[in-house]
Design brief:
By secondary structure, the protein is mainly β. It is built from two helices and six strands, in the order H-E-E-H-E-E-E-E. A six-stranded antiparallel beta barrel has the order 1-2-3-6-5-4. Strand 4 and strand 5 form a beta hairpin. The two termini are 22 Å apart.
């Protein structure tokens, strides 16, 4: 029986891949229905060692939905995020607060593979 490979075997689930996408817009969908759009504003490796940062599977992503508010935001769940470069990705997003500029809502997705 074949053994499943960790997600980080794919460059698409490594820090370096997402770091190049900071500033990109992603469409948020759930069950095929468009819920809005967000921007990837931050990609942060958990391991601060520069030599490991590019290929590590331990990092977090921060997205901002500028149209969300404290009265209207997405609950934590797995959403489909679409981007021209990535295609569709299923990511677990957690709302973590108001955007740094005081508008919109920030969402975090954490990757923690060895």
């Amino acid at each position: 029986m074949p053994i499943a490979k960790p997600m980080t075997d794919s460059p698409q689930f490594q820090f370096g891949y997402f770091a190049r996408l900071v500033g990109e817009e992603f469409i948020i969908r759930l069950g095929g229905r468009r819920l809005g759009a967000c921007q990837l504003v931050e990609a942060t490796p958990t391991n601060r060692d520069d030599k490991l940062a590019e290929t590590t599977g331990q990092f977090s992503l921060i997205f901002v939905d500028p149209n969300a508010s404290v009265d209207r935001y997405l609950p934590q769940s797995i959403y489909q995020l679409e981007n021209q470069a990535t295609g569709t990705l299923d990511l677990f997003l957690v709302p973590i607060g108001i955007g740094k500029d005081g508008t919109g809502i920030q969402y975090e997705s954490v990757f923690n593979s060895p």
